[in-house]
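**Sequence, structure tokens**
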Amino acid sequence: MLEVYFRSNDETMNFCDYLFSYSKKIDLHWQKDAEWGNRIQVNYNIEQERMKDALANAMVDVFNHHRLTTMMREIIEGVYYYTNQDEIERIMDLTQWIFTGEDEDSLFVRDIKDPNGLLRSIFFSHIQDATSIHFDSIIKFRFTVFKEQLIHLVGLAIDEFKREEDHQAFIDMLREYIAKKQPIYDTIHVIQGNAFTFFKPTGERFSNMELRKIMHEEPLYIVGLDGNEMNLAPLVSMAPKNIKIYGDHPSEPKTLTIINVFQEKVDFMPHHSFPFTFHKNN
């Protein structure tokens, strides 16, 4: 038998729900407690180590559901001194993505560390040989290492946020530059690949020499584009009224950048929709 104490009624209810989701072979008795708010008496009919795992996992879930965002906000405001609410919300979203994400990018950013694993180990260590557990006390007195890790993750999120801001400023500058230019061509056709392949409205392919000549006549350094960049820079130099991109990967990064810069001027179509015989014969 084990006693678990929570101050919050909502956290108590969620703890019971989470615990039942990990094991049905338990019996819970919930009583109000004058000092701690709520006392849960846990009786179980499963192997002790499995029960400890279930308890630790349920506490991790309660913390993530009820406490994590508050702790993130306190760090963003109190450690990194952000006050703008829109910026705070975006940094919180990025921190949550880094904290819980399983995609390649989030794993790379957080160096494949497992914050939930640290949480679980903290709670599990307090369950060992204990007859009573105080959820609030663990968070207040035993979370130093976790808070240090969370401060680090928030810092990574802020770095991502600043990169987003810089990228958006770059995109806005390109849009303003293009808006002031006279189009060299009405329509440019583009085929996806490791490097884009560009075609004139007639279907004739641009040679690299032609593209470099067009780019050389533009002061691309003003907008921070490298004269050797051969995907975005040619389109910025030509500023066409319409861009038709053909391929099978609409979320490919280079393609997304073109769409972000040129917006409604871009149409993305399947690879097989390319209308000219040049590509079909090669």
